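Many introductory courses stop at the sequence. We go one step further.
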Amino acid sequence: MILENIHDPHNVSAILRTCDAVGIPIVSLIYTIEKFPKIGKKSSASAFKWVEKEKFKSVAECYDHLRKNNYKIYASALRSESKSLYDLDLTGKTALVFGNEHRGVSDEAAANADELFTIPMFGMVQSLNVSVAAAVALYEAFRQRFTAGYYKNSELTVAQINSLIDEWCKK
């Protein structure tokens, strides 16, 4: 999950909760225009401490980091060339990019993504709240991965799990 300049702390909190719910341990944060919002522990139901945050100063820095780790980057964008979320294969190493509540993802984030996607909508409005859109996309990725059997066994070793528990107990 990559969040770019999302300013509402309630949206960030809701996205972190959804990330935790589907087992995403790290969220990449790009704040080039907005300041990182102050997130209260109560509003995020403590998910803030369970999900690691990686902060980046630019889209290029974030994307380079993820590509070095073999991630495919999909940016949400209301563009004619965007694919439906449901046409994407989200079973590989995937990063989903969601942008600012008013501006969406930046032109740079869209242009440098591997592909653009939208969530199909058939009503009068063109977009969902960013936290709702992130939840829809994350649960589609979860559905694909669950169906493929990815949740049967942890990707972490017992030592890694114990190390995480130790870190979480310190928070």
